[in-house]
Amino acid sequence: MLRTILVASLTTLAVAGVARAIARDDRPQVVSRVDLDRYVGTWYEIARYPNRFQRQCVGDTTATYELRPDGKIRVTNRCRKRDGKFDTAKGTARVVDKRTNAKLKVTFFWPFSGDYWIIDLDPDYRYAVVGAPSRKYLWILSRTPQLDEATYRRILERVAAQGFDVERLVKTPQRAGATERKNAEIVSR
User: Fold this and answer.
1) Each residue of 100-134: pLDDT tens digit?
2) In terms of C-beta distances under 8 Å and separation of at least 24 residues, what long-range contacts does 62-70 make, across chains too?
3) 36-188, which class in CATH?
4) How many CA atoms lie within 13 A of 17 on its CB side?
5) Contact 76, 99 (CB under 8 A)
6) What residues have CB less than 8 Å from 36, skipping those under 6 apart?
7) What is the pLDDT of residue 17?
């Protein structure tokens, strides 16, 4: 009887361990390497999964990253609200995977932080795709306010191959002139 209980317990532990390993292996794959000096700067949001912290955003959404002397990254997210005014959120990102620089934690409200995984990145840093291991969040970013349709479709194929539901993506309207003027204001400050 004791032997049966022991075997059953070990089997249960083994199955649970395998299930955890499978769950870990099922997470999205990040890019092999991110050069942070090239990654910093302003990115335009091309599309995103709807989320609660951007519910006020109707367009002209950007993310600007700046390296700080302490190695962390200053994050400034901006978007246009329904009333035409811009909403700004400032935070800090830190690299949690120094081997690739592709896994970061971003904090806007201490002590809470979120996963920021770079899962696709153009070799020339023209576009990037950021997601979370839970696949709850996803953003497609570009250095320009628009991304050509062929490139966007190829990104969607790779994102879908990583297990993300591309049907959930909502495209972000970008009025290039207005957003670029606002970004120029940030840079000139």
Assistant:
1) 999 999 999 888 889 999 999 999 999 999 999 99
2) 62/179, 62/182, 62/183, 63/139, 63/141, 64/183, 64/186, 65/39, 65/40, 65/41, 65/93, 66/40, 67/36, 67/37, 67/40, 68/92
3) mainly beta
4) 6
5) no
6) 67, 73, 95, 101
7) 39
Stretch 145-166: mean pLDDT, rounded?
97
Cα separation, 154 vs 136, in Å, equals 21
Distance CA 173, CA 106 (A): 24
Q: Which residue has the higher pLDDT, 67 or 109?
A: 67
Residue 23 CA to residue 11 CA, distance in Å, equals 18
C-alpha distances out from residue 77 to 28, 43, 123, Å: 24, 10, 24
CA distances from 10 to 14, 15, 100 (A): 6, 9, 36
- Spacing of C-alpha 26 from chain mean position: 17
8 A C-beta contact, residue 172 and residue 159: no
Q: What is the pLDDT of residues 24-38, one digit of tens each?
A: 468 999 999 999 999
Give yes or no for residue 91 having a pLDDT over 70.
yes
**Structure token pair of residue 104:** 């970061």
CA distance 120 to 118: 6
Report, as an integer, the average pLDDT of 162-169: 97
Q: How far apart are CA 105 and CA 125, in angstroms?
A: 20
